[in-house]
Amino acid sequence: MIVHLSRRYLFSASHRLHSDAMFPDENQSTYGKCNNPYGHGHNYTIQITVSGPVDPQTGMVCNLLDLDSFIEREVLARYDHQNLNTLAEFSRQVPTTENLCIHIYEIVQRGFTLAHLDRVGIEETMLNSFEYAGEGEPPR
Is residue 89's pLDDT more than 50? Predict the structure, then answer.
């Protein structure tokens, strides 16, 4: 039997939605107020969903302490209180929340091997949320 475990984490970061490949008026019409030259910030909520069989000895899919310490070290320490535009992964990519979601998924996929990663979700605002479940795997 496979059980899904979802865990939420919070962090704050800023970004400016702007593409150097577009003219200023294109950036403004595409990104609107999010193209503000001074950027803007969000209090993000990320949700990591992993799955696996329940370990008969521990009764868990994975140890929450292991998951928490991995996310703290590899995700929160990297993104919390950062200007996303200044990070290497966004040097050639617009730091949209869609792209941030993909990057976080890839970090967890590569490094957390104690359970299967199903998806990463990010709530940017009360109205905007995003999910990524890997290449060719639609979100559930």
Answer: yes
